[in-house]
Amino acid sequence: MQEVSNNKREIFDVQGMADAARSTEYESLESAASEIVDNAVEAHADNIKIIITSDVNFNTGRKEIKHVGFLDTGDGMDIDTLHGALVYGEGTRRSAKGIGRFGVGLGQASLFAAPRVEVYSWQDQEDIFYTYLDANEMKNGEQTHIEKPKKETFPSEFIKYQHQRYKTGTLVVWKNVDRSPVKTPSGLINRLNKSLGQTFRYFVSKEKYNCKITLIDNEQPQNPTYVKPRDPLFLLEDDEFLADRDKPAHKDEKQGEPAFEPFIPEGFGSNEIEKEIEYLNNNGIKVTAPVTIKFSIVKDRHYSDFKMKHGKHPGTSELGQEAKEREGITVVRSEREIDFGRFGFYDVVNQPTHRWWGGEIRFDSRLDEEFKVSSNKQHVELKKPNQTEKDEARMNDTRTLWETLDEIIRPAITQMKNKNQNRLKYKKNKAIDDVSNESRGSYPESNNKTEAKNSKINERVGHYKIENDAQSEIEKHIDSITNSEYSESLGPYLKVQETNKENQDIVDFVMQDGYSEIVINKKHFPLDELNHPKQEFADIFIKALSMYYYKNADENSVHDMLDELLLEIKNIIKEKYSN
Q1: 15-24, 192-201, 274-283: segment of lowest average pLDDT
Q2: Same domain, yes or no, for 102 and 164?
Q3: 185 and 38, same structural domain?
């Protein structure tokens, strides 16, 4: 028996794991901070202070981040719970229905940000208990176990906040932070404000839980930053960005309104659509749990009204710039955002129209396996399935999770995009009609009447009109296309190629060597039969570009507009040449 015992090895070599413990799945210090806030929220904290200390870097002469402390008013931990709080796989929050579940968060997140983490916790005002984890000591063989917590005084770096302690609570300290993306406390505060405001928007919202998160530069505690909700759907009444009721798409922090409104897809009675998803419970029995999908769309007065009033696309407004940062679908688990992206439900990069709607997928931890939630609660695996995955689902007489969600989400996106495009068309046409009506009888009968009328129309809706000099420039580039190759440059970003493939669309864009090539399929577009192919294509391209500006003109690069421009070209070609 002794021989067998001697042959046993530890599952983990602590010294060898020291570096691995600091190389985890967290993408940023902000995501690691979310893990600590998770723990506080799970412990029923209603007040969380994140305090950033700094020290002078003698090489640069500037003050840089040194320690970060997380002080909360939660339940605190007893000695046994605190003893296991930094043990990998044990954790403190193992509820299947709460935010925390996997038992790897506190130590893993902390060592990502700093080489040492210290935890102080109390369940009465008198006794503070302390434990720590140090990657350098692990590497040197000095720390191989978590010692039983001992009584300790409040750490000197944060002593000024001792009187702000609640009768129960916890202080987590990241010592000598070395993974911050910015060097100064103000820079980190700005990043945490945005990240935590979006991730924990429902917890900090007064509409929901009203949990206060405060960001403090230890050198300027009199000027704290209070984290406000940052809702990608722009629906919360206390969102960080509220729109001015009188000035379309402008920000009004004090008396503003949500810039978006609920959107109800066709065939549904609410903007919140509940779908039951099957899963196997702990007893291996097939049961269901709900997924809720929610949509929002920009209010008309902050979209088309802005364009009519200012002659600019709403993408240039304060709201437009903020919406650009929040473009995407948010995935929320137990009221906390766990992921954010496109997830294959739409995949056009930088298409401005996508910023003007919002989508949310919400579920609780019963569906963690179906969403393949990562152990650090930073991601879900939600992507378009391949054929093998589809076939496996069919064998079980079901569909993949992505397909189930896609049949609701994709049509809703199309409906929201179309609604916004129609809004702009309607307002543009109405403006032209209004000006035309105003112009009748307003000018003397002369050859200048038409010029005066057109001038007034252009003054009101000039942003919708492609300028003559831009059109001439395009024609100049297109004039270089030869009848034999059709491949000369249209400009610094565009050139034309031809193809003869059976399964390729009429026209497409291909990114290659820094150019966006327009690929024309001769199977559908009769280049060889045209009398003046370069002029024909010039007309098509310019018309498509004009229609793009009518609908979607935005101050973005050529690359940003290619996909919408492509749709216009396709429509024109189909209308003009289809049999």
Answers
A1: 15-24
A2: yes
A3: yes
331 and 188, same domain (yes or no): no
441-488 per-position pLDDT tens digit: 443 444 454 454 444 444 433 333 333 444 444 444 434 433 333 333
* Long-range contacts at 55-58 (CB < 8 A, ≥ 24 apart): 57/183
Q: How far apart are CA 516 and CA 140, in angstroms?
A: 55
Helices 533-552 and 468-478 cross at an angle (nearest 10°) of 140
Residue 35 lies in a domain: yes
From first CA to last CA, the distance across the chain in angstroms is 87
Domain of residue 124 covers: 14-226
Closest by CA to 84, choosing from 24, 114, 42, 129, is: 129
DSSP string, 300-369: GGGTHHHHHHHSS-GGGSHHHHHHHHT-SEEEEETTEEEEEE-TTS---TT-GGGGGEEEEEEE-GGGHH
Give the pairing of strands 329-333 and 357-363.
parallel
Non-local CB neighbours of 209 within 8 Å, separated by 6+ positions: 46, 202, 203, 335
Is residue 341 within 8 A of residue 329, CB to CB? The reply is yes
Do residues 530 and 412 share a domain? no
Neighbours of 439 (CB within 10 A): 17
Report the amino acid identity of residue 317.
S
